[in-house]
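Input chain follows. Return structure tokens only.
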Amino acid sequence: MNQEKPESILSKEERSLLLQIAREAINTASNGQEPAELVLANLPGHLQQDGASFVTLTNDGQLRGCIGALEASKPLALDVQEHAIAAATQDYRFRNVRPEEVPEIKIEVSLLSPMKKLEYSNTGELQSKLRPGIDGVTLMDGYRRATFLPQVWEKVTGVEEFLNHLCIKMGASSDYWRTGRLDVYIYQVEEFKES
């Protein structure tokens, strides 16, 4: 099975520009201001195309906010701007980012590939098809759903722990993936962060 991460879509300049857009959005949001209006026509082509992103904020290595979209619905530049604001002000796990915190915050952007349904017939096959460190995973069960970016693999010991935590995030028991028939989708990300 291919264990390679997908090739980069964005240039170094495009990545830098998206991080700058996110940084400005967090700065204005923390001050209770509206973000600058992006003139899409002035941006590189990839940033004008629809894209799905997650924006993750950390402070001293600790998660400070993370919000994103699983499916592309708007131009990538707008998607990143919107999710940077949401990560700073709408992540229910954290209080809003305050202006004095902004200089300490590091920003990471994850550009998602389209999701693909993972077909499996039993839990053993599900475990064997997931690629730690490469696949982001979304579990769906009726109206409930939860996702983990591929970066979460770094914080768990293996596939079972990954799926256990993802079930809990979805609002189910940790072993629900073993007993329930879940719809499982995978995707990959192109991730980049501020240096």
